[in-house]
Amino acid sequence: MSAAAAKPILYSYFRSSCSWRVRIALALKGISYDLVPVNLIKDGGQQLAIINYLEETHPNPRLLPQDPKKRAQVRMIADHIVSGIQPLQNLSVLKQMGEKKMEWAQNCITSGFQALEQILQHTAGRYCVGDEVSMADLCLAPQVANAERFKVDMGPYPTITRINKALLELEAFKISHPSRQPDTPAELRA
Amino acid sequence: MSAAAAKPILYSYFRSSCSWRVRIALALKGISYDLVPVNLIKDGGQQFSAEYKALNPMQQVPALKIDGITISQSLAIINYLEETHPNPRLLPQDPKKRAQVRMIADHIVSGIQPLQNLSVLKQMGEKKMEWAQNCITSGFQALEQILQHTAGRYCVGDEVSMADLCLAPQVANAERFKVDMGPYPTITRINKALLELEAFKISHPSRQPDTPAELRA
């Protein structure tokens, strides 16, 4: 009983796109939690498992459409970011790239965003899939933040850019933003 | 009506672990389909053709055409199959056990496989083998520990789940890259149990339409 009543604890790194996705989900669902800052999580990409668990145990507001085909589109977009882009430019991989780090990260993101831009042209409404915020959007905004950090030219991706802008206007995305975390360094604070 | 009646089409490469995951799911759920092979190496990689790119902008396998849509990303496909063909199920009923299944699947699908896929290995030149072994070793060390808490006969308890669909193909990759499986007894035991199941055998890389003669079972 007491385990169920205890506040959830999130181990989070302010700048980790993986942590940010989960912070957005918790904010959207109005789940209060204790945040324990960790400096660089060994990230194995398990945040979608966490977000799916939150979706099943706190169904409102929902992060997946009701229609199975639209749900498949949401998952496809989320998985593309979480498996197809982010792991290739995470910290442990970049360490291996030495001087080529920046170029490598830019190539991964560019290549991933080219595909994503095409897909979004078919699926997007106000957000990634139709007009409701979904798990795809929770993955998109943090990945765009990564792109900006690696100075990727966002010119070729108008749909990604438009959606990201709309997302950053939402309270849950603002409150969970890397620039506003307990462990955000002073020089990077909003 | 005719779109719904048409057989699903799976774009697959015999040796792609991501494709194998979906082949297992289709076999377990008894869904018959047509397989269109996409050779990731020939012709500079058939996934890069304009024709395939129009079908799947991500230029990867697998992709599944089903019910009038095309889905890519193996877990997105598997989740769709789970929702539209619920039996036999690939997720436990309890949300916490479901989270364990997803965590294991995500760890393999995001934390291990992408780091040793073809396009990354191309970049590694001579260091290819060493890089792949390191990715897999590091990922399997974590996975072995997780499985010691969650595993029964299979990855989570005693029912085959999405986690198992991801495990067997990743172990096949480990073997291809000559990773020493000694330190991972739980992974090894589960993999052995899985390979005895019909769905895992029939979908195996050694038994596909595009399996080269020298690698056929």
UniProtKB/TrEMBL annotation, chain B:
Keyword field: Cytoplasm, Isomerase, Phenylalanine catabolism, Transferase, Tyrosine catabolism
Stretches assigned to the GST N-terminal domain: 6-89
Cofactor dependency: glutathione
Keyword Isomerase: yes
Annotated GST C-terminal domain residues: 94-213
GO cellular component: mitochondrion
Biochemical pathway: Amino-acid degradation; L-phenylalanine degradation; acetoacetate and fumarate from L-phenylalanine: step 5/6
InterPro entries with a match to the protein in the record: Glutathione-S-Trfase_C-like (IPR010987), Glutathione-S-Trfase_C_sf (IPR036282), Glutathione_S-Trfase (IPR040079), Glutathione_S-Trfase_N (IPR004045), GST_C (IPR004046), GST_Zeta (IPR005955), GST_Zeta_C (IPR034330), GST_Zeta_N (IPR034333)
EC number of the protein: 2.5.1.18, 5.2.1.2
One Pfam family of this chain: GST_C_3
Catalytically driven reaction(s): 4-maleylacetoacetate = 4-fumarylacetoacetate; RX + glutathione = an S-substituted glutathione + a halide anion + H(+)
Cited SUPFAM superfamilies: GST C-terminal domain-like, Thioredoxin-like
Keyword Isomerase tagged: yes
GO molecular function: glutathione transferase activity; maleylacetoacetate isomerase activity
Subcellular location as annotated: Cytoplasm
Any one biological process term the GO annotation gives: L-tyrosine catabolic process
Stated family: Belongs to the GST superfamily. Zeta family.
Name of protein: Maleylacetoacetate isomerase
Biological source species: Catharus ustulatus
Lineage of the organism: Eukaryota, Metazoa, Chordata, Craniata, Vertebrata
Gene this protein is translated from: GSTZ1
